[in-house]
Amino acid sequence: MKISTRGRYALRMMIEFGMNPDGCTKISQVAERLGVSDKYLEQIVSLLHKAGYVRSTRGAQGGYTLTRDPGEYTVGMILRVTEGSLSPVACLDTDEEGICDKKVCCSTLSLWQQMKDAIDEVVDHMTLADLIEEQKKKPDEALM
Fold first, then answer.
1. Please, which residues have CB within 8 angstroms of residue 30's CB and are 6 or more apart in sequence?
2. Among residues of the chain, what percentage have pLDDT more than 70?
């Protein structure tokens, strides 16, 4: 499983918003810091806005802010909005009997489940606040 640029930039964008808790952050500012197109980040922030993770403010001093405290967002929440499922195989994505008719006799199912559990353990216990604290220890150029 690979996290796409959409997921990586979503996390970086949320870090940027979280590092400016008292004001709005413009997409153009984030795009410049990350060296990415405004248009691409606008597509990503749209997903975050739709999920209720950020709010937008119009006007000259407008931009985006977080809707919650950074400690209330997990990395998993953000990645699932932008990436969808984090399961290594499709048969773990459903609560029903599954899309795989070989689930009952599959010798690799426990392997995939252990991988999914390990991924979930990491991304669901690391918060945006943790990433913000980590970012504060880095030089400004580290985001690029």
1. 12, 13, 16, 36, 41
2. 92
